[in-house]
Amino acid sequence: MKTVLAAAGLLFVSTAAFAQSSPAAFTEKAASGGMFEIQSSEMILKDGATDPKVKEFATQMIADHKKAAADLKAAAEKSGVSVPTTLASKEATKLKQLAEETGDKQKLYLTQQMLAHNDAVVLHRSYAEAGTDASLKAYAEKALPVLEEHSKHVDMLNPAM
């Protein structure tokens, strides 16, 4: 519980930093987070998910985040911002941890999803409220309700957190 509260506190503190992100920084964070959601979900479906509800969640993450990636790319192109095609080091490290997990891979996946979606909600909410680029703000506003739903869904799947 302390870990969750500490993480929540860090998310609250980091909101101001996310809101001040440049269009390029927002795009980089949003793209890397989305790629992590897709790649980790593909990984858990391939070799780790045993619970049908987790499989359903992972399948939904792939579909929703591929759509969000296309929407982000379109918004970024309108704004003249490039979209990265590789994971940032934070997400690459998390993906490597999941790949190398020898214990309960499904539990690690759910924990990572919970934290990743908390970050994504804060990032998108902050940019929707205070971002400087109209196209990216519109993208953030559109993506936010889906990300909030994902966050609630993963919390229900991972009640121990």
UniProtKB/TrEMBL annotation:
Residues 1-19 form the signal peptide. The keyword Metal-binding does not apply. Keywords: Signal. It comes from the Bacteria. Gene3D superfamilies: 1.20.1260.10. InterPro entries: DUF4142, Ferritin-like. Residues 23-157 form the DUF4142 domain. PANTHER family: BLR2558 PROTEIN (PTHR38593:SF1). This is Putative membrane protein. It comes from Aureimonas pseudogalii.
